[in-house]
UniProtKB/TrEMBL annotation:
It comes from the Bacteria. Coiled coil: none annotated. This is Oligosaccharide deacetylase. GO terms for cellular component: membrane. It comes from Streptomyces corchorusii (Streptomyces chibaensis). CDD domains: CE4_NodB_like_6s_7s.
Amino acid sequence: MQKDQLFTRRRMLLAGVAALGAAGTAGVVLAQGGEETAGTAAAPVAGPQARQALKPSAFRLQPLTGDGPPRAAPRRLKVRKEPIMRVSTSGRHMVLTFDDGPNPAYTPHILDTLAKHDVRAMFFVCGECVVQNKELLARMADEGHVVGNHTWTHPLLTELNRREIRSEMESTSDAIEDAYGERPQWFRAPYGAWNRAAFQLGAEMGMEPMAWTVDTTDWMEPGTRTIIDRVEGGAAPGVVVLSHDAGGDRSQTVRALREWLPYLIDSGYRLTVPRRRA
């Protein structure tokens, strides 16, 4: 609980940073009109047809540990100057993302709701939470969700040097691979505070940077109805929705998701995740 309160205080203090991070990243789209190179992300895949990261039996029979074979070097990507914050789509597709977890008090409820509606989402996880909740990443893999890197301790990257940023990112990718079964292909800067080093190091580690289009503001605990209104009011083709499954009391997020998710589905939206790069 102490750590959750710390996350909440840090988010409140740096709310302005997050807003600037989102506002300053407009104009970058995922797989826009074939302009992306083969080394970047492909078009999104609809939730029910999303690739399952690992078959359940494969994950349980072949866990990746520190004693396993050497990790393969990721393929370096083009270094971006802005994060991706929308998906290119010819239909009514949206992407749901959850930050700061996993948290055993809230993440299972979110996974239950997603499973009930056969929807896949992206989870940007913190390494220090991963090592305490590996079973939740195993479940994400089993159920076809995409897991991204959100650093180890959720620091403000603009206050760290390059070596410190690398350590935060690299250690988290290692922990994700051990628990989820694959190294992450996506990275999100805490508070939406990007800098040149984050873009460069992410590309070196084979991760595309992703921001968001709609912030539910659930990190402020504004009330369940406010969260619902923000998602339903911001829904549009190509939108990336930001929510949180840790970093504070996320009971409002859990309750809101149970209402706005079926609303989006009934409104004709398909909830997508990015297709895995080879």
